[in-house]
Amino acid sequence: MKISLKWLRQYVDFNITPEELADKLTKVGLEVESIDYLGSKFNNFFTGQILTLTKHPNANKLTVCDVNVGDSHVSIVCGAPNVAVGQKVVVGLAGAVVPRNQHDAEGKPFELVKVKIRGVESNGMICSEYELGLGEDKDGIMVLNSNTIVGLPFAEFLGLNDIVFEIGITPNRPDCMSHIGIAREVAAALKTNYKLPEVTINESSSPVEYSAKVIVEISDKCPRYSARVIKNIKVQSSPKWLQNYLSAIGIRPINNIVDATNYVLMETGHPLHAFDYDKINDKTIIVREAIDGEHFVTLDGKGRSLTSGMLLICDANKPIAIAGIMGGINSEITDSTKNILLESAYFNPRSIRKTSKQLGLSSDASQRFERGADPNATIYSLNRAAQFIAEIAGGENLKGVIDVYPKPFPPTLINVSLQRSNSILGTNLNGHQIIELLESINCEYRVDEKQSNDEDIFTFQTPSFRPDLEKEIDLIEELARLYGYDNIETKMRSIIKFTSNSIQTDIVDEIRSWLVGRGFNEIITNSLQSKELAYLSSSEVVEVMNPISKDMAGMRTSLIPNMLEVVRNNIYHQTKNLNLFEVGKTYLKIFQESENQKSVENYKEEEKIILAKSGIANFPNWAENERISDIFDLKGEVEDLLFIFGLDKYKFIPYSTTKALVDMPVTIEINQIEVGYIAKVQKQMLKQFDIEQDVYIAELNINILKSLSKIEKKYTPLPEYPMVLRDLAFITDKVLPVSEMQETIYKAGGELLKKVEIFDLYSGDQIHPDKKSSAFTLQFLSEDRTLTDVEIEKIINKIVEAMKVAHNAALRK
Amino acid sequence: MTMKETIDEIRKQLNFEITKFNSLHELDQFRIKYLGRKGIISELFEALKNVPADQKPSLGKELNELRVYAQNLYDENKYNLESNQSSHTELIDITLPGRRKWIGSLHPITQTLNEIKSIFLRLGFEIASGPEIEDDYYNFEALNFPSDHPARDMQDTFFITNKTLLRTHTSPVQIRVMEKQQPPVRVIMPGRVYRNEAISARSYCLFHQVEGLYVDTNVTFSELKGTLVAFAQQFYGSDLKFRFRPSFFPFTEPSAEMDISCFLCKGKGCRVCKYAGWLEILGCGMVNPNVYKFVNYDPLKVSGYAFGMGIERITMLRYGIDDIRILFNNDVRFLKQF
């Protein structure tokens, strides 16, 4: 909200700078977001009068002017052809920055200094419209009206000698959406008083009741409707001073009637509306709800389709305004308007907000009504506007006001406990301070309402312009605000009760730092994506009802598409060797929503981690050859990762899939639970993302990893007896998976065989083309004795036999 | 020459002679001459037998020291000669770079979040989390945003259905935690939140927050200030200035926004702080008693505070990032800077 300093000073006096005022306002919760010094570009420009002219001794076209600039005379050399004695002109003195240089092709600004022009001193410049940025006339100096006062700062002459604050008003403070509202806060902050403008109205003898009637059908949506009728007005432009006030805060002047209601709106915060009285049928105002499908054209020229429940202001047979939001074209004030009906009502905030949302139509009025206007302000604001209109548009105010207010709002009384105030704030306020602080914001201490002799409880009646003050805590907040947040001690408690016995460590954090150590860069991507991408991995896509764009209408069901996008973008920027990971959620809609369910349970959010590898596997260096990553590079990373987190009982199970995303996928299983998969991204998919190199990915479900990972670590005694190693190589069919051989070896080896590791794989000239040789290292260990060669030999024979039976495998000598 | 004089003389001689041995072979001659079984020092030990008894202890000590001295000289020179020799036999260009590995990095958002988490963990907070797809009830209603209330306009919302939405803040986790646990509750709640705003340099459709909540007996506004100042001083430095100014959040009352003096210009005013000298870093306040009603806490028995901050904003301020979108582009050249 824009607040004019000049305007504010009408209601409250203060001797602090605008910057200090901004600081005070910010400290009471009215954040000053910016300060606009409207006239600052005209610093050092004044209105002046040319007293004498003499020819320049050394230049034909120049004149030396003696100019009165108020408290002094200055001598200025001027080259303008139209300069003449007696003219009122605009004078820039040394230090002024002329907005546009007439002699510069681009019209750049320049600063004035005292100079000698061909030997004659010149103390400033008499400016043209062009130079001042007020018009395009370069042909001569700007000549002001002959009744212009000499010596005025030019900004003041233009009505620009004002400072405007942009204040962020929080939604709980409708009372601050006006100059009087801010004045009240300034007065409280500075411990001074504010004053309301006095209103006096000259009324005619004709009672308003004879000229108009108001019927409120829905009084809970319109608790109060006040109105006046003003006759024989003259619609014309507002006086300059009024236009200046409105322009300063960004409101376009329209005509004296509309400007007067806008002025009072910005002054008191109470919205008013003026109807052309002669366009009101039967001179009757009916406040009723709209009928479904009713049509209405608002002031902005747009047709609106109304629905039942929306509150309308109507005459005897048609709507003339959408209550509290916007008037209609059919009763608008025009140049030919002679008589007006001025409305000042109080509407139910929820009803206004609902209608405003439904229509997608918001106005200065609706913003105030929906936050809560002051039901007791209708008459004051109405009279204030009536007084104004009489002053600037003539006309006669009919006698009295129409005021439909069947059920006046009772005053709000709130009890505040001194003890509770202090215990919530951590302060040591006493009763006197509480009364003083709250009275400074117009809360009335009601000693008469005291319920008991309880010394701790204070009863206050809150002002009706503060709808946000409903409960004790609201007053405690006011106490904190007025006492000053800065004055509340900053301290910490020395004893903390803990509810669990250890600092939580998050396995995800550990995985992250482990991966960073392994050379992976973490990425974070958008969980909103196009539905097309989301449906690639699942049919249970969560869709957004009101997306920003089609690209973000679904929620991701897999981390792969985002990862591929990142891979693509990096390759595009010449980063072709990539080790990336992301920890993020995927989202699924697992049930249709029904009324009786908790809606959140229809959705499944799973935290996942995705790893991607592409490009060269080893960091390029001078000593080794580059090697392109393959699936075993990524598989190794995953195996190490699982091992680190105590998940060494994993199994990799190849599976075939028809899903569009991946080739050669392997499922990772732990205790028969699927944890994730490793795969190569399918060519088709890579093409879709414009990626021309292989990409390997692994996606693991973190929730499952968390539930499986061993939390407690236990010590295992180190073996006392030596380990025995034996190498065996088998020749088998090429297609036989190594994992199956390992399984057979483990089974046949018994409990003394602790580990089987493959160390070589060979196929080639020395063996049959359909065969391969797989060489294993076997580790044998006993906990209670040193193993003998005879024992080991026995086991090995068993293994060789088992391999022969199971896989037709021959021992390679 | 007395024995004492002999010892001193040999010491000088040692120092002089050692410089003449330039190979391991020559050095061995030195060892035999002085330290050998029939060497000079051994002979002196023999001669010690003939020294008067009262001089024996002191001379014996000196002789021992001489032997140690000679041994050290020998060892040192042997080591030097050996290491020189090895570098002569194999030519290594030590200026070649080492065999390096890929260097990974944590996303700057994660780094900021980790730091915030570790500070609050030290202050006795635990970590809690909740769903991103939320009920209207948790995201608004139970946080004292009644339907049809203008406060809802503060947060533009993505809807999934009429009553399901993408949470606009991490505050619904407060309700979920309090529903499950009786006071004392002392948690921080990090997570991803969504706002239906046009994407620009200054706003993205999602960001990350850390929410904090402490409910217990006699928790005061004063303590809220204390805790957040302790946090800010650990995070931004102990010399910063801070201020709390009144603000409005439906779920806290009194509410405040915390500003710190701009760490770039030290409060003088610069582009980053928009010439205000202050940077807004978080919102906070005392839990509104209306909220306790939704979770069956007794507002007459407990009080508490809550706070929330945006990780992206803090990250951008810290590293001087002026466009939020770069955080989500994941250009490795960017990621490697952190």
The helical percent of chain A reads: 25-40%
Strand content of chain A: 25-35%
**How many beta-strand segments of chain B?**
9
Helix content of chain B: 40-55%
Structural class of chain A: alpha+beta
Number of E strands of chain A? 42
Q: Rg of chain A to the nearest angstrom?
A: 42 Å
Structure description:
- The complex is a heterodimer of chains A (813) and B (338).
- In chain A, 26% of the residues lie in helices and 27% in strands.
- Chain A has 813 residues and is α+β, with helices and mostly antiparallel strands.
- Chain A is elongated, with a radius of gyration of 42 Å.
- The model of chain A has no long low-confidence stretch (mean pLDDT 92).
- Chain B is an alpha+beta fold and 338 residues long.
- Helices cover 41% and strands 19% of the residues of chain B.
- Chain B contains 12 helices and 9 strands.
- In chain B, the strands form 2 sheets. In chain B, strands 1-4-5-9-8-7-6 form a 7-stranded mixed β-sheet, sandwiched between helices.
- In chain B, helix 2 (24-35) runs antiparallel to helix 4.
- Classes of the chains: A alpha+beta (813), B alpha+beta (338).
- The interface between A and B is large, with 93 and 86 residues.
